[in-house]
Design a protein that fits this description.
The complex is a heterodimer of chains A (212) and B (254). By secondary structure, chain A is mostly helical. Chain A contains eight helices and no strands. In chain A, helix 1 packs across helix 8 and helix 4 packs across helix 6. Chain B has two domains: 142 residues, Rossmann fold; 66 residues, no CATH class. Chain B is globular, with a radius of gyration of 19 Å. Classes of the chains: A mainly alpha (212), B alpha/beta (254). Chains A and B meet through helix 5 and helix 6 of A and helix 2 and helix 4 of B.
């Protein structure tokens, strides 16, 4: 296979590739978004309610150990095929790092800062939003970073349940024993994961008080 | 100004007492020292003054009002507090740290800024140089100066200080103590100061309350405590530095 042939192949598929990348980003974006907006409150809740800590952290941990293909298959009868079950599955996987890191970040807040907040007259909510969450932020962003990268990977499998994305190329490539097609899905997926990782890393550095 | 009436505090339903039947009155403008070794109940007593801890029995009055009837958050905002481990907020600048209580009270940013700079100057720190820094960029002594400035920000009538100079080296401690003596003349505030350092107590206190095992052993001026110790514990406590000096001199002479 010479270089010109590869170039021609990519040009020919360019439009479709772009579409699949967008689908892939949609799957990852929506599920990570849902996981962030539910996972962070959940992490705060777990932190403030020791009673439920074991159950919630345990549940998110168990989800993480289930093979992703099995989860997708299990969700089929409940949500049908297409994007919906895919987003449910991806959200479940993204929850663990976000919930756990929010919780860990809050436990890492220095006791002296917490005591000072109490002593100078913060209300509980002010203490949470002005001291505890800002100090836990680096941990939370690290969790979101992990979640997003995991999502990009698992989203390639969602092609099996008709959710689209770069997995479509991989599946077709496998079915037709066509390595070019397979790599057209696999390489952009890998690049996407790396780019997201770098972008969130950059964001973390901008937002984190530790780096200043 | 502050009156503690027969207060007790137990954390285990009455099996042991952190503070036992303690009564005390602190006059306006006075610096009152709670002196005792660790675990004697002095910090617990201090924390009962701004409701960080509520007494199991007895009552605390400030300016004649029982503080149980006051909102703890409002109460704490009206009382300055300096912590042993400083407790500056690491994600806020020095200026933001100092003016935090004003921010909680909804004071305008320009006024907060002005007050923060005023206090930095009072504490002997150049505002232009330090206001924008983060706590990690300061030395231990500078951090505690900022801690004191934060406590003074809302112009409180009462300042509670919990071993504020316990974690800094001897030289810095000395200069912070001198600083406090100077500031005390400029801002009229009633201070309750917890320490285990006898010299600090004698240097700063108008009156000293010696605590042991949750009970008040003696309350009095330095002179009274040094010349007429009420209990064996008080006598031994103040005898210790004297006998150690003697011991040291003897060793140096030998």
């Amino acid at each position: 296979m010479n270089e010109e042939a590869i170039a021609a192949f990519i040009v020919e598929r360019w439009h479709e590739l772009w579409q699949k990348v967008l689908e892939h980003l949609t799957l990852t974006g929506i599920s990570t978004g849902i996981a962030v907006s539910t996972g962070i409150p959940c992490g705060v809740w777990v932190y403030r309610t020791p009673r439920i800590r074991g159950t919630v952290l345990g549940f998110t941990g168990v989800v993480q150990t289930l093979p992703s293909l099995a989860v997708l298959a299990l969700l089929l009868p409940l949500f049908g095929i297409g994007m919906k079950p895919a987003i449910v599955a991806l959200t479940l996987y993204a929850l663990l790092p976000i919930v756990r890191n929010t919780y860990t970040g809050l436990t890492e807040v220095p006791a002296s800062a917490r005591e000072a907040a109490m002593g100078v007259g913060f209300t509980e909510m002010q203490q949470l939003f002005m001291v505890e969450l800002p100090l836990a932020l680096p941990f939370m962003i690290a969790g979101i970073r992990t979640a997003a990268v995991i999502s990009v990977g698992i989203a390639t499998l969602c092609s099996f349940i008709g959710a689209g994305g770069l997995g479509d190329f991989i599946n077709r490539g496998l079915a037709m024993n066509n390595a070019r097609l397979l790599l057209l899905g696999a390489i952009p997926a890998g690049v996407l994961a790396l780019l997201l990782d770098a972008a969130i890393g950059l964001l973390a550095r901008r937002l984190s008080w530790k780096e200043r | 100004m502050i009156r503690l009436e027969n207060i007790s505090k137990t954390f285990d339903g009455g099996a042991t007492f952190a503070v036992r039947e303690l009564s005390l009155e602190v006059a306006p403008g006075e610096t009152f020292i709670l002196l005792g070794s660790s675990g004697c109940g002095k910090t617990t007593t201090l924390k009962m003054i701004n409701r960080l801890i509520d007494p199991s029995s007895g009552r605390v009055c400030i300016k004649g009002n029982d503080i149980r009837n006051e909102d703890p958050v409002e109460l704490r905002r009206s009382i300055g507090y300096v912590f042993q481990d400083v407790g500056l907020f690491p994600h806020m600048t020095v200026e933001a740290n100092i003016s935090i209580v004003l921010r909680l009270k909804g004071i305008r940013p320009e006024l907060r800024r002005k007050r923060a700079h005023e206090l930095l100057e009072l504490m002997g720190l150049d505002p232009d140089e330090h206001a924008g820094r983060y706590p990690v960029e300061l030395s231990g002594g500078q951090q505690q100066r900022v801690g004191v400035a934060r406590a003074l920000a809302a112009d409180p009538d009462i300042l509670l200080m919990d071993e504020p100079f316990g974690a800094v080296d001897a030289l810095t401690r000395d200069s912070l103590q001198q600083e406090l003596l100077r500031i005390r003349k400029e801002v009229e505030t009633t201070i309750v100061f917890v320490t285990h350092d006898i010299f600090e107590a004698l240097l700063l206190g108008h009156r000293i309350g010696v605590m042991d095992n949750g009970t008040m052993q003696q309350v009095g001026s330095r002179k009274e405590i040094l010349q007429q110790p009420a209990t064996g514990f008080v006598r031994d406590l103040f005898e210790t530095p004297r006998s150690r000096m003697k011991d040291l001199t003897a060793r140096l002479d030998a």
